[in-house]
Amino acid sequence: MILALVSTAVFAANLDQAKRDGLVGERADGYLGLVVTSAPGDVVELVAEINKKRKAEYQRIAAANNLTLEQVQALAGKKAIEKTRAGDWILVNGGWRQK
Q1: CA nearest to 50, candidates 36, 61, 34
Q2: Could you tell me the strand order of the sheet in which 24-27 lies?
Q3: Taking the CB of residue 34, how many other CB atoms lie within 10 A of it?
Q4: What range defines the domain where residue 69 resides?
């Protein structure tokens, strides 16, 4: 249990740093995206791992609430973009821009 909490905290710290560094941003579909396609391998792995966990959670929420996965993803993406700090990156209309 403690290991899981430490692991979650490390993910959050690394994600925050990757966002501040302009490597990662939020997408409207509820997932993270690579702002810089040449991001370091550890950042690419971090994004993949977090997106995998997000998808599992979105599927759980969709099943529990009789919604489609796409509906949950859209809502999650909207909320994530709203919560994105000024200066961090978001994917809007197919292009990355700073919020």
Answers
A1: 34
A2: 32-34, 24-27, 89-92, 95-98
A3: 17
A4: 2-98
Tokens of 71: 């509906």
Encoding tokens for residue 75? Answer: 């809502």
When divided into structural domains, the chain yields a total of 1
DSSP state of 33: E
Q: Give 18's contacts (C-beta < 8 A, 6+ positions apart).
A: 24, 39, 43, 46, 47
Q: What pLDDT, in 10s, does the model give residues 50-70? A: 999 999 999 999 999 999 999
Q: Which long-range CB contacts under 8 A does 59-64 form with residues at least 24 apart?
A: none
Single-letter amino acid code for the residue at 49 = E
C-alpha span between 25 and 50 (Å, rounded): 12
pLDDT at 4 over 60: no
